[in-house]
Amino acid sequence: MAVATGEAALKPVDDAQAALMPELGVMLRAFWVSPIRTNFAALAFAIVVVIALTTYGQIKLNEWNQPFYDALARKDWQEFVNQLFRFAQIAIALLVMNVAQAWLNQSIKIKLREGLVYDLVEQWLNPGRAFRLSTRPIGINPDQRMHEDARHLTELSTDLGIGLLQASVLLFSFVSVLWALSSGFVFHLGTANLTVPGYLVWAAVFYAGSASLLSYLVGRPLVGLNAERYSREADLRYGLMRVSEHIDAITLANGEPDEKRRITIDLAEVLAAMRRLAWRQTKLTWITAGYGWTALVVPVGVAAPAYFSGSLSFGGLMVTVGAFNQVQSSLRWFVDNFSVIADWRATLLRVSTFRRAAAQDDSERDGVDRIILAEGEPGHYRLDRLCVFVPDGSTQLREESVTIEAGEKVAIIGERRSGKTLLFRALAGLWSWGSGRIVRPKGEVIMYMPRTPYLPPGNLREALAYPVPAQSFETRSYETALDRVGLKGLAIALDEPGRWDRQLNEDEQQALAFARLILHRPAWIVMDEVLDSVTGETHRRFLQILHEDLKQSGVMHIGRSEGHDHLFARVLHLVPTKRTAERSGERRTTQP
Q: At 93, is the secondary structure helix, strand, or coil?
């Protein structure tokens, strides 16, 4: 069974491009039910009003060109001064609108990021979902998608959205101005006079349309190249984080040269993707920069015939040039922002595909056998014909139907590589590939103990109380629990923050996990080789805690030995078996 080792293996770039509209729909539906919707709507309405007022000011500024430049042409000093005062009024009003638009732009970015990240985290950390997602290629580097990609998407979406809105308002506002100016354009061909209705508008449309078409043809591959770059960047980030998390083991094994080789390979992939992207952006620059420079003279060239024929004054020429520039720049918005749009598209696909995967329940997929999870009577934990699929076959309990009573201590033993950890995950509801039925007692607390306990960052009190608030237990209870597991000396450090997973050895970390059990006193405890991983005094202490402090708790210990000083009243046996994909109906592409 193959497992993808990097995000680049997720899907072809062409498929990503084709999926734009469905993925955009995913994000819009998520936004529609978001709690930020009302606040965002208010900000959006405000930005529309500001853009409308700014456009009105720009129209007035364009109209101001004619009397100002005509006054210059006539050398009329008094009118020139009057127009300067008028310009100051318009400029101040536009400055206020620019500042307001900048503030609203940043506010919208913050609000969008708030809604998007909260939504992604909520979907991702739905009970059991983050683990199931991590077993699939789409679940690689979720931190990258929820942090960097989400930030980038909200910023690009805001800038592009506001830019498109502003370009559209300017376009519709100045098209009518430009059309009206075109009515005075008369071309003299010999003795004939030719009038083309909307001549300036059609000239602007042709100029911007040709630029947009060329930009699309040259820049289309940028979407896929951006997607590839982000994928490679995520692989590099994952590699660096992995080395950072396991630096102690790497150092002890003198593995720095090998890790350096792996990181160098990932970096080479990133640089190769960046070179391909840079080459394509360079090609696109020929179009965008070329049309940008010609935009300096094209408006004058288009209006020149009317000016030289005498039907248009110098001030009128400047008004025409200003209106033409506004229309063609609005039409060229797609050209000027093509590389940004490609970047936005690639980022949208990364975030939306992750959001779709996080939101869907993969247990609903057809064609794959699933272990049924159900709730039954309190005080009884039942396993019926339980079979767990593992990469090279399956493993099952020799006993077909098992009922474990409250307070009963049961050992489930199996040989190495018999799928013990996958059975543990199946009992926890994290691994659903298999068959049979797990009936857990309704309304009773079940705590699961993996081989390596999780100790969250923060003070020791919070680590012991996890996952409930630290104030749920009295200080005396913490001190008693630490004393029972042999860590009495840590009682003075209850309120000290620390990285307990690094400050304590493996036995001490496991002891903290047992202290947590003493505090919570769950009705049921499921362990994955916990007792097999400790020896000596620590092992004896843990057995005593299970026998005395947690005698009311039902315990299922999955491990290699049935000993442990006769703690367990019953022993179940895990037996590897063979299976075929045809019999199980398995789709290997969905198997992690």
A: helix
The contacts of residue 46 (CB under 8 Å, 6+ apart) are 104
Sign of the dihedral through C-alpha 125, 128, 130, 133: negative
The letter for the amino acid at 94 is: L
Q: Does the CA dihedral 428-429-434-436 come out positive or negative?
A: positive
Q: How far apart are the first and last CA of the chain?
A: 8
How far is it, in rounded angstroms, from Cα 395 to Cα 437? 14
Return all residues near 259 (Cβ < 8 A) that are at least 6 apart.
Answer: 243, 250
Q: Are 6 and 228 in contact (CB under 8 A)?
A: no
pLDDT at 311: 65
Q: Which of 528-559 are b and which e, b meaning 16 or more Cβ less than 10 Å from the residue's Cβ?
A: bbbbbbbeeebbebbbebbeebbeebbbbbbb
Per-residue model confidence (pLDDT) at position 483: 92
Amino acid at 384: D
Name every residue whose Cβ is closer than 8 Å to that of residue 476 and which is 6 or more positions away in sequence.
none
Instruction: Classify strands 380-390 and 409-413 as parallel, antiparallel or unpaired.
Output: unpaired
Contact 28, 357 (CB under 8 A): no
Kindly report, residue by residue over 328-359, the tens digit of the pLDDT.
Answer: 777 778 777 777 887 888 888 888 888 887 77
Among left, alpha and beta (phi > 0; psi -120 to 50; other), residue 411 is beta
Q: What is the DSSP string of 301-316?
A: HHHHHHHHTTSS-HHH
Q: Is 590 helix (H, G, I), strand (E, B) or coil?
A: helix
The total number of residues written for the chain in this structure? 592
Q: What's the pLDDT at 524?
A: 93
87-117 confidence digits (pLDDT tens): 899 889 999 998 999 999 999 988 888 888 8
**Distance (Å, rounded) from C-alpha 397 to C-alpha 483?**
38
Query: In angstroms, rounded to a whole number, what is the distance separating the alpha carbons of residues 519 and 467?
Result: 12
Q: What is the pTM of this model?
A: 0.59
Best CA proximity match to 548, nearest among 571, 565, 563, 536: 565
How far, in whole angstroms, is CA 77 from its chain's centroid? Answer: 61
Low-confidence ranges of the chain (pLDDT < 50): 1-5, 8-18, 363-367, 580-592
Check if the beta carbon of residue 211 is closer than 8 Å to that of residue 291.
yes
Helix segments in 75-141, DSSP class H: 77-124, 129-134
Give CA angle at 46 (92, 60), nearest 5°: 35
Position 364 scores a pLDDT of: 47
Cα 404 vs. chain centroid, distance in angstroms?
A: 42
Quickly tell me which residue has 């959006």 as its tokens.
44
The C-alpha angle with vertex 536 and arms to 531 and 538, in degrees rounded to 5, equals 60
Q: What is the pLDDT of residue 46?
A: 94
Q: Say what the pLDDT of residue 196 is.
A: 63
Measuring CA to CA, how many Å separate 510 from each of 148, 408, 554? 35, 22, 19
Report which of 147, 505, 469, 177 is spatially closest to residue 326, judged by C-alpha positions: 177
Helices (H) and strands (E) counted in the chain, each on its own, are: 22, 14
What does the pLDDT read at residue 512?
92
